[in-house]
Amino acid sequence: MLIDFTMENFKSFKTETTLSAEVGERLSKYKRTNTLDIGRTAVLKSLLIFGANGAGKSNLLAGIKTMQQMVLNNPAKATDALPATPFLLDADSGNAETRFAVDFKQGNAEYRYEFSYDQKTIQHEALIKVHGNRETVYFERVGQKFLTLPSALTEVAERTKANTLFLFMAQQNNDAAAIAVMTWFAEDLVFVADFDEAEIPEELAVLVRNKRVKQQLLRFLHFADFNIVDSDLLEGDRPQLLMGHKVYDTDGQYTGKDKKMTLTSESRGTRQLLLMALSMINAKLTGDGKTLLVDGFGDSLHLALSQALVKIFNFAANQNQVILTTHDLPLLDSALRVDQIYLVEKGFQGISELRSIFDFRDSRNTSRQGISYMKRYIEGRFGATPIIDADGMLTSLMDL
């Protein structure tokens, strides 16, 4: 489970920015449903990130994705460039290092792992084990100098390239702590694929080979009011998911036959719902404790479906996290805690800033009923709303 993610000097996020899934202090609303107790602390089952177009919502998830890719993929050569995309709209940040840090629970252990880098080298890297209120530095390096290092990994450190994360080398040497961290990045941090893709990822599509999963999926689609009555797999080098629809005659009577079609024939909304359903089923099948990240949630779904999914994310039985970005403002008034709602705003200097509604003092009064966060957001009470001049937009098009 993700506890915190921090990044600095990445794309539009210039200053240190933290996305926290840790529950806010002295908040009890929806505690039994929307939160999970993971030992030292409790975490939120879902985080919803709102903001205007171009504010930087996708950049926030891109930072997590970049960290994951760097952890899982070691540069083959010492001269390979690292994926440095610093803030570029001032005189200094373009030459400064980018920093990522993540605090998470993996199994029964909690870790904090962080590193900073520029295009050529890893500048700093550390792995910390967290035991209640006590922290133990497992390893730490500054450049090629190791400040803390288990004696069993001394030779591994000597083989580590300047542009290679020591974590990758340590897990290759069968180090238990490094393997635990790598496992979390590889298996427990799950990015739901791009909804624009015509095909469902193979690892999700093949789930329908399991009859029970197939039945669950079809029941889910039925209750979501989708006219899909069957699903199958078109086997081949890349298995493809097929969805079955009822066939009717010219009088509108069901012929008793179904027509199976590939996902290229389905709407984007249908693909989005299928992808979300299979991702949640897969998380359950693989042991729970997953963190699912979704960019552009609800873009092609009816509001009622988006609201239903958010409710599912926060069901008491759900043992996974979902972090999503969305433009669907009515979701602000879902059954959410104030610490589950984040807002991204970009200032005139092009710098993105992330804030939780929990940070606004008057939003913490949970005793008041009927508060519309969507209304207050639109009114600009929380910032993060675009300043749009419709007349000016029209004039600019008409003056061609």
Automatic annotation (TrEMBL):
InterPro entries the UniProt entry points to: ATPase_AAA_core (IPR003959), P-loop_NTPase (IPR027417)
Keyword annotations: ATP-binding, Nucleotide-binding
Gene Ontology terms for molecular function: ATP binding; ATP hydrolysis activity
Residue intervals of the ATPase AAA-type core domain: 49-332
Domain of life: Bacteria
Alphabetical list of Pfam families matching this protein: AAA_21
PANTHER family per record: ATPASE AAA-TYPE CORE DOMAIN-CONTAINING PROTEIN, ATPASE-LIKE PROTEIN
The name this protein goes by in its record: ATP-binding protein
